[in-house]
Amino acid sequence: MTFLTYLISGLALGSVYAIIALGYTMVYGIAKMLNFAHGDIIMVGGYAAFFAFNKFGLSPVVSILASILVCTLLGVIIERLAYKPLRQASSLSVLITAIGVSYFLQNGSQLIFGSDTKIFPAMLMEGSLKLFDGRLMISYLTLFTIFTCVVIMTVLTLFINKTKIGKAMRACAEDKGAAQLMGINVDTTISITFAIGSGLAAVAAILLCSTYPSLSPTLGSMPGIKAFTAAVFGGIGSIPGALLGGLLLGIIENLTKAYISTQLSDAIVFTVLIIVLLIKPTGLLGKKENVKV
Amino acid sequence: MKKLLVVLLSILCVLSLAGCSNGGGNDGGNSGDDAPAADETVYVKLGGSGPLSGDAKVYGEAVRNAAQIAVDEINASDSHIKFEFNMADDEADGEKAVSAYSTLFDWGMQVSLFTVTSGSGAAVASYYDEDGIFAITPSGSATALVYTDEKNFPSNFQMCFTDPNQGVAAADYIAQGFADKAIAVIYKNDDVYSAGVYEKFNAEAAEKGLNLVYTGSFTNDSSTDFSTQLTAAKDAGADLVFLPIYYQPASIILKQAKDMDYAPTFFGVDGMDGILTLEGFDKSLAEGLYLITPFASDADDELTKNFVASYESRFGETPNQFAADAYDCVYAIHQALENIGYKAGYATNGLNEDLAKQFTTMTFNGLTGQNMTWAENGEVSKAPKAVIIENSVYVSVDQ
Amino acid sequence: MKGIMNTLFGKKNRSRTISFSLVILVYIVIEILMHAIRMPRLFTSLLVPVCCYIIVALALNLVVGFSGELSLGHAGFMAIGAFTAVAVSGLSASAVPNGMLRLFLSVVAGCIVSGLFGLLISVPVLKLSGDYLAIVTLAFGQIIKSLINNMFLGFDKNGLHFSFVTNEVSLENGKMLLSGPMGATDTAKISNFTTGIILILITLFIIYSLINSKYGRTIMAARDNRIAAESIGVDISRTKTLAFVISAALAGMAGALYALNYSTLQPSKFDFNTSILILVYVVFGGLGNINGTIISTTLLYVLPEMLRSLQDYRMLIYAVVLIVVMQLTNSSRIRRFADRITDLFRKKGEE
Fold first, then answer.
1. Which of C147, C283, C319 has the CB atom closest to A107's CB atom?
2. What is the pLDDT of residues B247-273, one digit of tens each?
3. Class (C level, CATH) for A2-115+138-279
4. C9: pLDDT confidence band, cut at 50, 70 and 90?
5. Distances, alpha carbon A181 to alpha carbons A31, A41, A47, A191, C132, in Å
């Protein structure tokens, strides 16, 4: 029974990683860039929801929508101002820009929101499902997070495979030059990708902050790195891979803490990651790319 | 090469901009140099460093704000000894602390609030000693700031309890009040403060024969989820959980424990102070929480009330123990300066020795304790106060 | 005479000559200044860390710029070098009282141990590429930080004592070398600027020798077109391993110099942010551009110190500088402008 409890808390953590990883992998798949500022957009999303709910007294649904709106706008603005001029530049220049954006958002938030932690309100739901006479508890929030993950994954997959914009995204991911020749507006497509990825970040923010209700300007950086790890673990660019990678990372992390050592959990989790990548060099669900000469 | 040229040019532009603003504004109130004050008024350059950016900014800011209040109060008073105050950013990092120290040294710092965090303090402790600058840290609680295995830094002092003292005090307190309880510990493994308290607590607990059933830890990289540690503690049958950590992660621990219907007695140390002032915190979670703290922001003595009121009106937040310790540091330095009869033209050489001699002989009354004294090794002696949170206020518990 | 001129300023060697003369010239100027006038303390305190970061940035440039592989874990190699050096210096303190000699021993030890770990990590380096390799190096950095964070090492007259996870080291009048999250305490500060410069010169010598050798050409051939290089029989795995191991060893050397410059050092110093910081230096200087790396590291390291007067806006401005410089260096308009300026100079030279 205790094992199940650990497994479920691992699932809760993993589902949060997964939902962040979805945003990462989506942007990576199409724009081929590691958006290191993704974690910080999540942070802004958390603050947006916090202020909408606590300060302006809006209803939870409106607060969530406000947060999504803020993040989407922020994502598009960042893309326009910082990343778009670098379309032709090397991927490392873009990476450094993303790091700059990340620093900027963190330090800017410290100046605007203050550096002390704020407690995120329980705006979604509370309580938990009690099974086996209360010996096993699953919080509704965990169930909701996993459910949201699966819904988002399905919708994204359908969107990318069935809609016209989705097809344009896949074309851009495959070959930008050819896509342009086929009459696809590459710039717009990439902007849309960023908008969707940032909107997802807001959803992730609300789920992350509801599960672990502490809000600070640096809150996004560590989950961001973990989610990036999860995305690579599952095979970066693959949407089901992000979900699988996130969930597995959360479960491995919690089982390690429970049964091996809390002090060494970081080391063990990352060792498992390296071993998995040595066996499957493109992640769990990643496609092997054959380079043509 | 062309690319490099552009990089160079743009950085030079920024540097020159920074240079301009450097000339324009100066940090502390510089009135000591330009405005000829009354004859007997003398300005002492008070330095100090702490994290003013990054993860730990909240602690550095608390110290800077409270010290600024103390400095402003003293400068407005009729005392002839006034301060120029300059707080440099050290990002809670040893390497940056050395640069921050050097900046302050170049500025002409005469006395110092040392550093806010232990890690950066340990990196500059020997510099203060070698350059003969008196320093007292509000919150750097590792012993390495004031002495090491090999040598004592005679003019480095502490206003807060040292980590070993806190660990021992907590273990002794639990041994007296909760000897029959099964105890779990959750500490932060990559934090000097938390690991330092835990280590001594562990040793003292073994000596007192406490029943330690579970030890769990977390790091900066895994400080979001504590459900595994709590489940394990619950499983091990712990009915007292010792938390030698800061209040931010503790707030999540309290929440998660409640969500899993786990209600042991929680016991914290001075880092726990501040939990009640967290914005949006459900104060009912902290009911029955014990902590050892030198400062309670809702105490009703005149000194605390005034300090809390002016802090809240100026910075819009309730001060925590970092702030209180910093406020005390400034006043303690001021008291020592007055005691040695500091005046214009006082020999700079040996000032630190005179102040150190004063600190080891004087007693000081402040926000964080009455009749404080300091030992030769720089440690403060004040009684650790255990409090319990009842109806969202600290209530002192006497045994 | 022409032969000498050619070896010094020929197309192939011009960059090398500039690097060496730049470093030596800066050293001489600084030494003269330090003896002639009292330099601000801030200036002298920045000398050694700048040397360390230059070395590790050059080392990372070997992997990122020349091999074309992204490493996000070079702080891990620095950590290995740093704590090895602290241990060696602490252990040999009584046997080798001479600071310079002990520094030399410690740096060599840090270099070797870190190089061995580089060899270990080069196994995945050969199997993986791109972001998958980046994540492995990131993981490696985290693992190293976490392991050192749990190590306790001390020695007394009965010899060395080691414990892992919980501190069970009890010493009789001994000295702790590593104490878990506290890291190294009470380290003798024996690093100095001159050694830093010598190590930079050694690093430059190694890197230039490597890239001008047969190995260097194969590394770059593999970077530019792996398939073409493989098809004409270039052994990529060996050269890649070589570059990675050398880079790791140099990073370890930088870490050793760094550790012995401070009296305390915590393992949390070598986290992901430090790896990223070094990467920023490399990308700023230009991939594969050695002189650029030296200059950009120096400027970017000094920049936050210069911005101190801006107080709370300091790191915000730093972030803006990162973004703006990246935009400017990649903007076609600015590049055309720079082209025109260089053309102007070139024409004048020809006239």
1. C319
2. 889 999 999 898 888 999 999 988 888
3. mainly alpha
4. low
5. 18, 33, 42, 19, 31
